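tool_call: predict_structure(chain=1)
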Amino acid sequence: MKEIIFLIEEAPEGGFTARALGHAIFTEADTVKELKSQIRDAVRCHFGGETSPPVIRLHQVKEEVIPA
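tool_result:
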């Protein structure tokens, strides 16, 4: 596996969540900087060292409402 993709969203109660696409990995944090660290740690724990993908791709979704 060359990369793993995470979907990052703002949590309704504040902070951010990250969910891996195609893998059972989920984490959350208060800031994006903390979330990146949590994602790296979660990937290492899930795959266990040598089998970890060398690239983690982050896809951030931001919902915004504007007046019509």
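agent: The longest strand covers residues 3-10. Proceeding to next step.
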